[in-house]
Structures are given as structure tokens and as C-alpha cells.
Amino acid sequence: MLTSIKTNEFAGSESKKLAMMYFRVAIILFGAQLLMGLIAAIQFLAPNFLFEVFDFNVARMVHINALVVWMLYAMIGSVYYLLPDETGVETVGIGLGKLAFWVLTAAVTVVVLVFIFIQVGPGKESTIWLINEGREYIEAPRWADIGIVVVVLIFYWNVFATFMKGRKTGILTVLVADLLALAGLYLAGMFFTDNISMDQYWWWWVIHLWVEATWEVFVGALAAYGLVKIINAKREIVEMWLWIEVLMLFGSGILGLGHHYFWIGTPEYWWEIGALFSALEPVPLVAMFVHVLYDWGKEQGMAKAEGKPGNVVKNGPAMAWIVTNAFGNFLGAGIWGFFHTLPQVNIYTHGTQFTAAHGHLAFFGAYATILVGMMYLGVQGAYGVERMKSTFKSKMAIVLITFGVVGMTIALTIAGYEQVLVERAELGAGWDAFFVAQNLPWYVQAQIWRTIMGVITFIGFVYLVWDLLTIGKEAKAAQAA
Ligand code: HEM
Ligand code: HEM
Ligand SMILES: [Fe+2]
Predict the structure, then answer these.
(1) Is residue 255 part of a domain?
(2) How far is the centre of ligand 2, averaged over its atoms, from the C-alpha of 94 (Å)?
(3) Which among 368, 358, 455, 345 has a CA at the least distance from the CA of 415?
(4) Which of 118, 136, 138 is nearest to 127 (CA)?
(5) For the segment 165-187, what is each residue's pLDDT rounded down to a tens digit?
(6) What is the Å distance from ligand 2's center to 356 Cα?
(7) Which of 33, 209, 211, 252 is the best mutation target for the ligand 1 pocket, counting ligand atoms within 8 Å of the beta carbon and taking the most?
(8) Could you give the CA distance from residue 55 to residue 41 in angstroms, rounded to a whole number?
């Protein structure tokens, strides 16, 4: 039975090279995402900034669509990266996989250029097909949707065929099943109806059932793989945790969907269903948190008992990002999610900066962190080094980015709090109330702090790119010495 994973067995594999292609595009889109966020943040403070040149709605749209797309790229990259390690064979269909990569990348480029050049215009049937579908987070027009489905089918076929050919580990079994659900859900966001309640009803299937069910299972599998690979965690233990997490995530995440059905015209029974199941969602997140820290501590303890100098972490930065993931997922999704998930609370917080605070910490904590960790594993594989220690740049990157995002979250939470008290509770949530609340000092200062923290995040990102470009070479030189 496969227990540990050799660092270098598949170092030069085609699958891992393909993974690196996905990681490179992912990091470029991550950078674009942050720049768009900075533009949108400045527009909160100076509404005339780039007005009618690059409007807030466009900056915001590119910000969050780039977010989703870079994460999907990094997820596909992660799968191509771990596939040979887990199956013990080279990935099937690499040629087709590369073709799919180029098709997808060309499509993404065209979609973004259209977003940027065609910012206003009529909303006709052809708009949905050619320009913009108008569904937050997944705004790509329908031609691109269809292209994405084809590309994902190719990807899935490669993964499935490789899985059938090689070893079938628990981690992979979970991953293969989860990917099918993840890809299938995308279809729910492709149909158009002019009833806005129905449209939103299905749209949430993509967004919520991705981030609170299928993506969470996905990162659970990545964390399990990462722990086996980096600290030699016992496979029986990480896989046992993984199965428990899968059970709990699907248990709470699917009906937790109800917390988006409180106020969109769906039947009122969703209040009870949404309240109960979404309130349970933090439970599996605690399990994931304990899982990472427990395994880490256990390995450390075992090493000590054997009189070794301590735990050998084969990839310092990747491990640091996985641990940050355990904390970030729990805080951003679990705690900040729970804050506003009961209908009695959500009636006041719905759509305020409170939601944005949760959105930032959850996406960052649960997904950005572990995907960056996978990129570090990718670099280690590309240079074929046994051990990659954190550098000064690695530390600057993780500290500045995490500090920046947590700072943004706190600032937005304060802005949201002010909106709840002034706009909602005191002034009754009308149109005027919205503007009154936006102009009061607590709100304005919070937006200033968010922008400052955004700049810090961006500086951290520069360190991250610099580190990813240099750490492999440095580790190789250190190994040779
Ligand atoms: C990693 C997992 C998660 C991510 C990435 C995430 C992200 C988000 C984002 C981006 C939104 C805003 C959607 C919009 O534009 O309208 C949102 C809304 C919401 N999330 Fe999460 N979330 C996660 C997990 C959770 C969990 C576990 C809970 C509850 C315990 C939760 C509760 C909510 C609620 C109640 C809303 C609606 C806010 C409103 O009414 O304005 N989320 N989430
Ligand atoms: C340079 C750093 C960043 C800045 C300045 C920034 C700024 C912004 C701004 C101004 C918005 C629009 C908010 C609104 O409509 O009220 C936004 C939305 C959003 N950003 Fe960022 N952002 C940054 C980084 C990130 C990161 C790292 C993530 C996640 C990994 C992220 C995820 C999101 C999400 C999910 C939304 C939609 C939230 C919602 O609708 O509730 N952002 N961001
Ligand atoms: Fe949700």
C-alpha cells in the first residue's frame, strides 16, 4: 500500500510540466485580480477616479471573475501535479491536455478584453452570448461557457483515465468524485430565465455549492496530499479525516444553500432549513483545522520520540501556507460565515460590507492559501529538490499578504457594522439611508484602511512572485552545496 510519496519520483513528468503552465497563468490572473481590487477600492474613496474610462462595476467584475478563474486554473494545476504521485503512472492524454490549456487561455483572454473594451451597451439576447452573462462571479458569455465545458470534459477525461489506470488511493477517489460534481454544477449557471428569482435560485447552485461543498472537499483532498508529501503524515490518518470531512461537508453544505434563499422570493421554509444547516457548516471546518494541526503535531512528536532533531518539513513555504489555510478557512468561512447566517441577523447584514468582509477572508483563507501552497510544491517538483526551506521572501510574502487580507477584513467588518446600525436599524434600509451611511466617518475611514491594507497585500504579492521565481534555484544551489 502507498504510504508516503517520494519527492522526486515524477519530478520531470509531463503532467507536472502541464501543472506549471496552469500555475503560471493562475499567478498572473491573481495579480490582475489584486490590481482591479485596488482600482475598485480607490473608487470607493474617489468616485470620479477613472469614471467612464474604467467604471467601478467593470473593475469589480474583473476583480471577482479573475478570482474565480485563477482559482480554477490553480485547481486544475494542482490535480495535474499530484496525479502521477498518487496513481504511480504518468497522466494519460497530456497532448490533449495541453491543447485544452491553450484553448482555455485564449478564451479567457478574449473574454477579459471584451469586458474591458465593451463596458456599456444594450442587454439583448446576443449580449448573453457574446459579451457578458451578468451572473456575478461567472460572468463569461455563453460562447465561453460552452468552451469551458469542453475544456473541462477533456481535463476530467484525463484525470479519470489516469485514475483507472493507476493506483486508486483514498485521496484520489474523493477527488475524482468531487471533480465530477464540481464540473457538473457549472451547468446550473448557464441557463437564462427572465424571472430573476429563478435565475438567482440556480445561480446560487454554482456559487454556494462550489465554495461551501465541492471546493471545500477539493481543498480537503489537497491538504491531505500536501501533509503526506511535505511532512510524511500517515496516510491512514489523513484519509480517515478526509472521509469524515467529506461526509460532514456534504451534510451541512448542500442544504446550507438555504442561507441564500432568505430574501430572493423563494418559499419561507428556506428560513428554517438555511438557518439550521448553514449554522452547522463551521463543524467540518473545525475538523479540517484540527486535522492539519493534529497531523503536524503528531509527526513532530513522533520525530522527537525517535530522537530526531524534529520534524523534517520538506517544503517550508508550502507547509506555512497549508497551516494558514487551516486557520483561514475556519475563521473566514466558519466564523465570519456564521456571524451572518441566521435569518434574524442576515435581515440586517444582507449585502452590506459585512458580506464583503466574509467574502474576502473566506476566499483567501479557504482557497488562495492552499493553492499558493500547491504552487510552491510545483516549484519544488520543477527543480527536483529534496527540501525547500522558506526564504526571507517567502516569509515576507505570507506575512504581508495575510496581514493585508486580515486588515481588509477587519476594516470591512467595521464598515458593515456601521451600515447595519445606521442604514438598516436606524434609518430603515431605504435608498437615502444607503448614502447617508456611506458618508459617515466610520464608513469612510474603514474604506481608507481597506485601501491601505490592499496596498500591503499587493506588496506581499510582489514578494510572492519574486520568491516563486527564485526559490527553486536557490534550493537547488543549497542542495548541491
Ligand atoms: C470557503 C467557503 C466560503 C466562501 C469562499 C464564501 C464566500 C462568500 C461570498 C463571496 C459571499 C457573497 C456573495 C455575493 O456576492 O452575494 C458569501 C455570502 C454569504 N456567506 Fe459565504 N462563503 C463561504 C462559506 C460560508 C459559510 C460556512 C457560511 C455560514 C456558516 C457562509 C455564510 C454566508 C452568508 C449567510 C452569505 C450571504 C450574505 C448576505 O446576505 O449578503 N459562508 N459567501
Ligand atoms: C489588493 C487587495 C484587494 C482589494 C483592494 C480588494 C478590493 C475589493 C473591492 C473594492 C471589492 C468590491 C466590494 C463592493 O462591491 O462593495 C471587492 C470585492 C471582492 N473581493 Fe476583493 N480586494 C482585494 C483582494 C481580494 C482577495 C485577495 C480576495 C480573495 C482571495 C478578494 C475577494 C473578493 C470577493 C469575493 C469580492 C466580492 C465580495 C462581495 O460581493 O461580497 N479580494 N474587493
Ligand atoms: Fe453560502
Answers:
(1) no
(2) 35
(3) 358
(4) 118
(5) 999 999 999 999 999 999 999 99
(6) 7
(7) 211
(8) 12
> How far is ligand 1, taken at its centre, from the CA of residue 337, in Å?
6
Contact 81, 16 (CB under 8 A): yes
Which DSSP string corresponds to 219-237? HHHHHHHHHHHHH---HHH
393 within a domain of the structure (yes/no): no
Lowest mean pLDDT among 193-202, 287-296, 397-406: 287-296
- The protein residue with its alpha carbon nearest to ligand 2, atom 32, reads 360
Overall number of domains in the chain: 1
Q: Where are the alpha helices (DSSP H) in 351-440?
A: 353-362, 369-383, 392-418, 431-439
Range of the domain at 19: 7-167
Q: Give 66 Cα–ligand 2 centroid separation in angstroms.
A: 11
The per-residue DSSP string of 135-190 comes to: -TT----HHHHHHHHHHHHHHHHHHHHHHHHS---HHHHHHHHHHHHHHHHHGGGS
First-to-last C-alpha distance (Å) of the chain: 35
**Residues 6+ away with beta carbon under 8 Å from 46:** none
Q: Is the pLDDT of residue 7 over 80?
A: no
CA 237, CA 241: separation in Å to the nearest integer? 6
The cell numbers describing 372, all together, are: 499558493
Q: How distant is the alpha carbon of residue 68 from its chain centre?
A: 7
Burial of residue 127, with CB atoms counted within 10 A of its CB: 0-12 exposed, 13-18 middle, 19 or more buried: middle
Half-sphere exposure of 97 (CA within 13 A, CB side): 28
In a domain, 161, yes or no: yes
Determine the Cα angle at 215 with ends 455 and 247, to 5°.
140
The whole-number pLDDT of residue 308 equals 72
